[in-house]
Specification:
binds ligand AH0; 6-stranded mixed beta sheet; Nucleotidyltransferase, domain 5; 14 helices; alpha/beta; binds adenosine-5'-triphosphate
């Protein structure tokens, strides 16, 4: 039996904060068992939100400086987390924050220098999980599916509702997974127009009405019917879904309402397109799982033969941090942590750079 104690760090596209999850992974006779032991979300200050969100518009020097400064910041968060809870840590495993993701140009880039993180945390650090997959011709995303396979095999589908929604499932002989559509990265700016950081429980969406023209426009992009491998970056979101929302004259509540219908519809399409049987058990995680209007739409479009399971809030909030911790364990063991069946890379690969402090 082998045990690993790892802190997984995730910063998602919603820019709501840094998720830290201290986890134990046990490998026993070919099976993995996980336990989440401590968690913390550190909300971003306005300064960090502006700095990270603005990185697509600044000089190369500023990008490099932010990569270092943000890596150092993550390391300080780790150090404080470890000291506060008196944790024994084998290593840290960090996703970083995605700035660019254009796999068609062979580009994916996350800031959060592993070297600076390791130095500030005073712990070995695994980072940069996506670049090798891109170099092997893959999308570099989504990477969570191997964790879904090895840690959540009791579910037929794993659906995450973060800034972008994505789904993962076991096909006949291989794991299938892809990004479905924009999710909170579309809803949060609309809530912002109503003076809220997000649409709590989907209350504003619920109060709106359905707008057929906007629904049709949101469903228009060819991305939705394209086969996987495929993944979405902010660049695609700006050009497509966010533009459709901006150009619509509908009331904000109607936009929220219609966007939730669009997401529920696309999620159901994604599930049905690949489901061998038109039934199954679906694990629902990510902050969007708290948006009850959105979840109702997902249930509605999926129909009653699919069981949608929303787990305890800790797993809803920290599943991605947990799985990035696990990808670090696989990297540490020099085992594959990126699936070519998901990303389209030339072969399964073992992504991630390790910095020993
Ligand atoms: N009670 C709630 N009601 C509605 N929405 C909520 C609620 N709580 C959280 N959210 C949404 O969840 C978002 C955070 O979700 P999460 O942390 O999973 O996203 P992320 O990590 O940025 O995404 P990604 O998976 O794309 O990397 C918030 O920005 C908000 O939109
Ligand atoms: C490039 C990038 O950061 N992609 C994220 C993003 O957020 C959701 C979706 O888009 C997914 O492709 C991915 O994250 C998850 C954690 C993944 O790689 O599985």
């Amino acid at each position: 039996m082998e045990n690993y104690h790892v802190i997984g760090i995730m910063s998602g596209t919603s820019l709501d904060g840094v998720d830290l999850a201290y986890c134990r992974f046990t490998y026993n006779e070919g099976n993995w068992i996980y336990k989440i032991l401590n968690t913390e979300t550190v909300p971003y200050s306005d300064i960090w939100v502006q700095r990270l969100a603005g990185l697509t518009e600044v000089s190369a020097v500023e990008i490099i400086a932010t990569d270092r400064a943000y890596g150092h910041y993550l390391g300080e968060l780790v150090k404080a987390f470890v000291d506060r809870h008196q944790l024994q840590v084998d290593f840290v495993s960090s996703h970083g924050h995605t700035v660019f993701h254009q796999p068609q140009l062979h580009i994916t880039f996350q800031v959060g220098s592993g070297a600076y993180l390791a130095a500030a945390a005073e712990a070995p650090t695994v980072c940069d999980f996506r670049t090798l997959d891109i170099a092997l011709g893959g999308q570099g995303a989504p990477l969570v599916p191997i964790g879904d396979r090895l840690l959540f095999a009791e579910y037929d589908f794993c659906l995450n509702l973060g800034g972008i929604s994505n789904i993962s499932q076991e096909g006949q002989d291989r794991r299938l997974a892809f990004d479905i559509s924009c999710c909170n990265m579309l809803l949060n700016p609309l809530a912002g127009q109503l003076g809220m950081p997000y649409d709590k429980n989907g209350d504003q969406a619920r109060s709106g009405s359905f707008n057929q023209a906007l629904f049709d426009r949101l469903n228009e992009p060819s991305y939705f019917s394209a086969p996987s491998p495929k993944s979405i970056g902010k660049e695609w979101a700006d050009e497509n879904s966010l533009r459709a929302i901006q150009e619509s004259k509908a009331a904000v509540q109607d936009k929220l309402h219609t966007a939730c219908h669009h997401m529920g519809y696309q999620i159901a399409q994604a599930v049905r397109q690949h489901a061998d049987q038109q039934r199954g058990k679906l694990l629902l995680t990510g902050g969007g799982a708290f948006n009850s209007f959105l979840v109702e739409q997902i249930r509605h479009y999926l129909g009653p033969t699919f069981e949608v399971v929303v787990p305890e809030p800790e797993l809803v909030n920290f599943k991605e941090a947990l799985i990035f911790a696990f990808l670090g364990v696989l990297r540490w063991r020099q085992e594959p942590n990126c699936l070519q069946s998901v990303t389209g890379a030339r072969h399964d690969n073992c992504g991630g750079a390790i910095y020993w402090n």
